[in-house]
Amino acid sequence: MSEIDRLTVTSLGADPRSAPLVASAQLLGVAEVVAIDVADVFFVAGTIDDTVRDRLSEVLVDPLLQEGAWGTPADDRSGTVIEAALLPGVTDAVAATVLAVADTLGLAVEQAATGRRYVVHTAGGRALTDDERDRLANRLLSNAVIERVAVGAIEPAFAHASTPTPVERVEVRGLDDDALAALNRERGMALDPAELRAIADWFERAGRAPTDVELETLAQTWSEHCAHKTFRARVVLPDGTLAPSLLGRLRDTTEKLAAPFVRSAFVGNAGIVSFSPGVTVAVKAETHNHPSAIEPFGGANTGVGGVIRDVMGAAHHPIATTDVLCFGPSDLPHHELPPGVIHPRLVRDGVVAGVADYGNKIGLPTVAGAVLYDPGYTANPLVFCGCIGVGADVAPPTGPHPGDLVVVLGGRTGRDGLRGATFSSATMDATTGDVAGASVQIGDPITEKLLIDLLRDATGCWSAITDCGAGGLSSAVGEMAEHTGADVDLALAPLKYPGLAPWEIWLSEAQERMVVAVPPESIERLREHARRTGVELTVLGTFTGDAVLRVRHGDELVLELETSFLHDGRPQRTLPAELPSPRRDGAIPRCDDHAAALLALLAHPNIASKEAIVRRYDHEIRGTTVVRPLVGAALDAPADGVVLAEPSGSVGLAIGHGVNPWYGVADPERMAHAVVDEAIRNVVAVGADPAMVALMDNFSWGDPRRPSTFGELVVTVDAICEASRAYGAPFVSGKDSLNNEYLGADGERHSVPPTLVITAVAHVPDADAAVTPDLKAADDQLVLIGTTRPEFGGSHLGAVLGGFDDPRSGSAPEPDPRAPERYRRLHRALRTGRVRACHDVSEGGLAVALAEMAIGGRLGVSVEQLPVDDPTVALFAESTGRFVCEVAPGDAAWLAAELDEPVHVLGTVVADPVVHVGPCRVGLDAAVRAFGGAS
Amino acid sequence: MSVRPRALVLQAPGTNRDHDAVFALELAGADASIASLLDLADDPAPLDAAQLVVVAGGFSHADALGAGRMFALSLDQVIGDRLRAFVDSGGPVIGICNGFQTLVRAGLLPGALGHNASGSFQCEWVTLDPQPGVCVWTEGVEPVDCPIAHGEGRYVHPDVAELERNGQVALRYRRNPNGSDADIAGVCDPTGVVLGLMPHPENHVIARQHPLHVRGGGGGLGLQLFRRGVEHTRRS
User: Fold this and answer.
1) For residue A633, which residues of chain B lie inside 8 Å, CB to CB?
2) pLDDT tens-digit profile of A912-923?
3) Whole-angstrom distance between the N-terminal and C-terminal Cα of chain B?
4) Most buried in the list A516, A538, A908, B133, measured by CB within 10 Å?
5) What is the dihedral of CA A224, A227, A229, A231, to 10 degrees?
6) Boundaries of each PurM-like C-terminal domain copy (chain A) (predicted)?
7) Which of A80, A85, A8 minimizes the C-alpha distance to A427?
8) What is residue B14's DSSP assignment?
9) How many CB atoms are closer than 10 A to CB A893?
10) For position A806, what pLDDT does the model report?
11) All domains in chain A, ordered by first residue
12) Distance set, CA A627 to CA A368, A388, A647 (Å)
């Protein structure tokens, strides 16, 4: 008879988790909370005697730091006890390690689970109201997506087997459109009427009813997420003419550019380029928005894991990750929080912890990124995760070939990501048979790290590779088998716990799995590599050659579809576009106090230092980070881009981002051009060659079935194609995430602001010549390059001053046709080493750029010569295409000659700690304080 | 011509700075290779042949039970006796970050490592001042600049005075980043051959890696420690 015991482990000193919880409780309107004690709880089941307890305590409790107590703790009368535990079936690395410890020590522990214990103390010991207690329990101390919570001691729950539901056959033949629509709703398939009709017709011809496995597979393969129906849709313009799809335009632009360094664009898991002989670089960026909204830690965590697998799925070895994060205001008053929405500060803290956890543990530097705040992201935070990998510049694997084995590597399959919502509301205890399929999972970076090691060591063992992402095996095997067909047996898949129905195994989104096609003669070699690395390997079936996908569960055939129907049978969508008509009126906000405006801009959350976040990420591992996200004398000033260079090599890679949703609201077309420009400018500023830049696009928008929203996408894509041609920088990969909307209590749908993230990855010919924006020496000259215009549409000066009567006033920055040539010439100038600092001019304009350079160098600036007469325009306009350069005294003329265009000599670097720009005079200390004040 | 000593870098699932350590060791004049505990359980010969051992940094077993605990347990099970014999014979061992946490939990080094005072993982550059004492890894070394990247690096010892008397405090932070007792960044065993430290000297082995390099600045290389370790193998 198995018995259950629990160990509660408490810190001897203050637990560092406590203080942030108290701050967050106050944020949730429970102001009288003065302390929240935290303890870790371990549940074990098996033959638990004193020997087992003692041996486990030795490992789980460090006597210099902690104390442990076995058994359920007595009631704590000093405060309110709240305990939380992961739902059974949610990835729990700690519980798995407890079992590994028991196994190593030969202890009879059969199951393990973990939890956390909180004791909430209030001022004067006042009892919490039921509402306050529930708010803390449900909104701060636990998340119902992955956890259950109890007041007092929680009962443990372990994963138990359940009886699998048998395969169901669902009649679709002879159904009219209404009946198909009802079936669509009932099964949550999110398909169009035309798509449902195509499915019904196919099974009509096949002369049979589909199985649930087949319907789920079609719904998944044809989903917006997998099929990108909007970007592949025919565009209907306002005059009724048809135009090519958005994806078609992007592909066509890249093909016509014919950049010699592009190896693969818009196919497979990632874009691939080659900047140096013998080496290829794979780049990919993904969004993980909805998961991060409902479970910030797990959503961001698995977002990072997923994009790293994309790069592995492109047969490249990951070397770095990036992240661009968009949140609601962190100081949003509790009463303004929409119902059911997690507070933006808790979202931010959870997302940052999730990114840090995965990146730090898997051992990749998290190097580049951005953090944006806007009320438009309160209900729909955005999480863009990117990854860069390297490989050998050899012909890519040509498989799968008929006869190759279908092999799954890595983690086990559970109910992860399957209809989680219906499970999560059930009450759970030790006797509950079902295992919840949380719709968001916690990642397991160590398993993925082992996969990286295995794939690095076992090259040549497979003929094709892909990752298991959305749609799980159905998507991975389905895509690989597109030209060959495959025959797999789901009964062979290793499961986390027994009892999964065939469709659950096939569709499960369990993380940390890769699928490879392995020629039979290589399987033993791969098996040996897998054993040595500690990676689980399972042969599920074979790639056949008859272009039919067959899925069995033991003896039962549960899916049989022609791959041509699965991949090409979906009717193309047609979407109407209504094009935006932005105001371009050149209005200038009224600014009476330029010094106050500069300090307000430096302190604005979008411009202020992100150090508190950046330092949570390991950006040093691999020893390749040459230009870091934070630079300068005190290492607290923002870099434009980052530069990575192998310690043994001389060349580097620069990574930069462009994103500006505020321009997106004002003028999507100009926004699109401006953010391409900014991404490229950021890499050029650190020393990258503008002739060797590859771009990625990531779109997060609202519902594209609204013609005005689709119209924004249409002009945005046209503008980035135009910019791509202008700069000679091809797009090689992209992704769209649509329907980022929230149905408010007002009954209105609220969309995120149009958010386009452009990532530039570029070649740095000489990593030792990388340039940073921090000022280097007093008496140097400061030179502005580019043209300043009255451009304030979507500007940050408008944001801090509220200086417009109508927030849609002003013009978003227009494209500068001279910028591409300017960047080529500036690059040649930077390579001479005579430009001592270089910074792009972006949010907040020239004054902010100069202040950031001054902060970086802990030197002052003295600027008397403004580029235009109107000081507000000179200091704060956000015209694109501009840089500030620092050169030695007398070198301004040399720089002008190099650039072959007029430059503007602004003034000089001074030892005096003051930022003096025309009418604005601010002490360097005040600037440092303002910039560092927010996070 | 002197023969390059053989250095072995130990790793467990989740170790991730093993390749950085190999690069540093090679630069310091050793022939370095990586072995997992799984490899050594199959065949301990690489450990028997090693003249210098590194327990590398990372997140072994995801730090699931607290940093280094599971690594220490399996280390003890698989090679505990061999590693102790190696140390008894004067063989130099360095545990970096997670390797330090592991050696402490395995009982080869004194004290404990708790959560940073900030409560968070921290990645930043620090300056380390070598302390007079018995440590063979830091003897005659100039101050070292290198990054930290850890969440559980607060060094705790119930009797720092005793460590000091024994000359076991090997490295101190010039500016304490994590609340460690007496600014301690690294400690050694009583014989001085086993060093554990939280910062990452393997990530500052060439000048370009220093964040102030672009400003024409810099600081002492972490490479010095690996050079001392390699020199020690030639002495013993």
Assistant:
1) 212, 215
2) 999 999 999 999
3) 18
4) A516
5) 110
6) 402-552, 779-915
7) A85
8) T
9) 13
10) 66
11) 3-151 (no CATH), 298-384+581-933 (3.30.1330.10), 401-424+438-562 (3.90.650.10)
12) 10, 16, 13
Could you tell me if A778 lies within 8 Å of chain B, comparing CB atoms? no
**Taking a contact as any Cβ pair under 8 Å apart, which residues of chain B between 160 and 199 contact chain A?**
none
Residue A476: HSE in the Cβ half-sphere, 13 Å Cα cutoff: 32
Do residues A628 and A619 make contact, with C-beta atoms less than 8 angstroms apart?
Answer: yes
Q: Find the residue in A nearest to B209 (Cα).
A: A626
Band the pLDDT of A426: cuts 50, 70, 90. Answer: very low
Which residue, among A639, A654, A914, A633, has the nearest Cα to A761 in the 3D structure?
A654
Whether domain B6-235 has CATH 3.40.50.880: the reply is yes
Q: Hey, what are A293's tokens? A: 């909204």
Looking at residue B215, the DSSP 8-state letter turns out to be G
Neighbours of A839 (CB within 10 A): 28
Residues 6+ apart with CB under 8 A from B81: none
**pLDDT attached to residue A156:** 87
Residues with pLDDT less than 70, chain B: 1-2, 236
Q: Which of B64, B123, B156 faces A619 most closely, judged by CB atoms?
A: B123
A105 contacts chain B (CB < 8 A):
yes
**Average of pLDDT values for A513-525?**
97
Structure tokens at A808: 């849609």
Peptide bond into A498 cis (omega under 30): no
Q: Which of B112, B115, B209 sits opposite A623 (nearest CB)?
A: B209
Q: What is the ipTM of this complex?
A: 0.97
> Which chain B positions have a beta carbon within 8 Å of A632's beta carbon?
215
List CB contacts (< 8 A) between B77 and chain A.
Answer: 104
The residue among A446, A449, A768, A776 with the most chain B CBs within 10 A of its CB, best to mutate, is A446
CB proximity under 8 Å: A 868-897 to B? none
Q: Tokens standing for A98? A: 């407890």
List the Cα angle A627/A383/A881 in 5-degree steps: 50
Q: Please give the residue that has the higher pLDDT: either A32 or A852.
A: A852
The partner residue sitting opposite B62, judged by closest CB among A93, A534, A620, is A93
Amino acid at B175: R
In terms of CA atoms, which chain A residue is nearest residue B20? A622
Position of tokens 């949570």?
A: A616
Share of chain B above pLDDT 90, in %: 93
Separation CA A173–CA A413 (nearest Å): 33
